[in-house]
Amino acid sequence: MTQPNRDLYQAGAALCDYVAKKYAEAIDHLTREATIIDGFAAKGEQVQVSGGGAVWYVVADEHGEAEAVAVTSVEKAVGVRIDLDDMHADLRYQRATVLLELRKLTELVDKASRMRVPRNKVEPKDKEGRCCSGQAGKEGAVVWGDALCMENGDPRRGGLCPGHYMKWYRHRKAIGVDTSRDFEPA
To answer: Mapping DSSP to helix (H, G, I), strand (E, B) and coil, where does residue 84 land?
Structure first.
């Protein structure tokens, strides 16, 4: 058996040991920060979201000139909340994407491991040389034969496949036909 793919093994270990734990911690952190911004802080944590003075930002206007813009703490809290929500959505999207791609890879690996070389039997257009045509006219073919058998017939065995030759041989023995000369050259 071959060794596991080292890259996939390392990625799986990183996914199990590091990413899964850090993902849960990141979601908890974002939820906690969003709760604080919304004003429902846990005991001991406080954030001022109302009143107070303005915060000044320097931004470029439509002509590219710098302009100072006043932003209140409420507006700043809303901006931070939007950033937190965007980060939360990005994490969920990336997690869903990784899981989907992992599922696709698993299905592809399973499909590849089930693939086999096609075993195409070449079927001639006519039934010449087939067991079903070798059965015609033989004693008791209705009892031991199969009109749909498409195995190659052996001319040394009366044009029958090995299985049907044995059934024909046993049928002839049962009705008292001498089979001792079946393989004598003509």
So the answer is: helix
